[in-house]
Amino acid sequence: MAAVQSMPGLPTNYKSIPKYEQVAETTTELDWADLVTLDLSKFDAPGGKEQLAAQLKDAVHNVGFFYITGFGLSQEEVDQQFAIGKEFFALPTEEKVKYRADLENGNYNGYRPKGSGEILPGKRDNVEMYNVYKFVSSVALSLPHNLLTVDEAPGMEREQPDIIKENRTEIERFQRHIAEDTVQKLLALISIILELPEDHLSKGHQYNDVSGCHLRYMIYRHRTAEENAEYQNLYSKGHTDFGSLTLLFRQPVAALQIRMHDGSWKWVKPYPGSITVNIADVLDFWTAGYLKSSIHRVVAPPPDQAHIDRLGLLYFLRPAVDLKLKALDSPLLERLGLTSKNAAASEITAGDWVAARVKGNQDKVPEGGKQEKAVLGGISAKYYD
Ligand SMILES: O=C(O)CCC(=O)C(=O)O
Ligand SMILES: [Fe+2]
């Protein structure tokens, strides 16, 4: 078996693991969503940021999803991460559960076994996740004023399985590139859109901040046609994400869908060399709904990909846990008359919101086709079939 090759100048201390080959794309004609693509390599060119921000404005306001390219990670580096995920999920369940995340207390750090959540009444999911939080030692951590000790921080470092330990240098380098480069550029563009200083949103999103940011390896175990029918083809119910932004590395198995304004669902096409990005709840709160935390879901792939266990690689960006959900003072929002819709809710911290949503995901689905579920402080999250 071929070993994962090291990139020039990158550490070579990871164990030899099989190289990950991305599967072929579907040849099925699907109703694809028409999404904007931002080439982030233009960011530092003269006028580049302003151009990119102008290109992004409508997408973040009306759709909540877009693609980025030119983000400075090669497909080979991305595939190394897919290879690590694949190795981890191939471990026996009894090994994986040793690293189970404390889901009941709203902490996603570690392993989430399949069946942890319900998709339809009495029907549990077929999804496994391994979430790797930031590698920040307690010394480097910027503790927010409302946390007195590192022990109160939502589990940053934890005991990891060998496959993560052996590849830790590379995983941390990959994570840091996203957190310190890619995401910072996106936050600058969003700040420009909101007519705020360019570094405004960066402040609550530093690698050393206490936050639930994580790199996620994910696998959707394929189901038979009969099982798909029983599950109404759903692998994950329509939902919004909890934090600031979600970055989804190219996933050639078609399954992700976005809910459009008119209630229809469109497929998200995975383009080579791209990351799909979506706005999540906290940015929606901070902008009183101007930035759209869009509803999306995962469904059974088309017939030519139905037999594939769909591997995913995602980065979840979340704000420092002590930041409140109150809407930002932005000249744009002020002109539009947008302020927090719910005064009590605006005092909730991002950390409490995210933890409540993680806990809520372990609950049973709302019965009787109800589309809303109370989360915290009188605010609900929306779920759709
Ligand atoms: O697997 C995907 O394409 C999307 C996953 C997702 O929506 C999530 O994990 O929040
Ligand atoms: Fe999601």
UniProtKB/TrEMBL annotation:
This protein's UniProt keywords: Iron, Metal-binding, Oxidoreductase
Protein family per UniProt: Belongs to the iron/ascorbate-dependent oxidoreductase family.
Domain Fe2OG dioxygenase: 213-319
Source organism: Extremus antarcticus
One Gene Ontology molecular-function label: metal ion binding
Keyword presence, Oxidoreductase: yes
Superkingdom classification of source: Eukaryota
Protein name (record): Fe2OG dioxygenase domain-containing protein
PANTHER family associated with the record: 2-OXOGLUTARATE (2OG) AND FE(II)-DEPENDENT OXYGENASE SUPERFAMILY PROTEIN-RELATED (PTHR47990)
An individual GO BP term: small molecule biosynthetic process
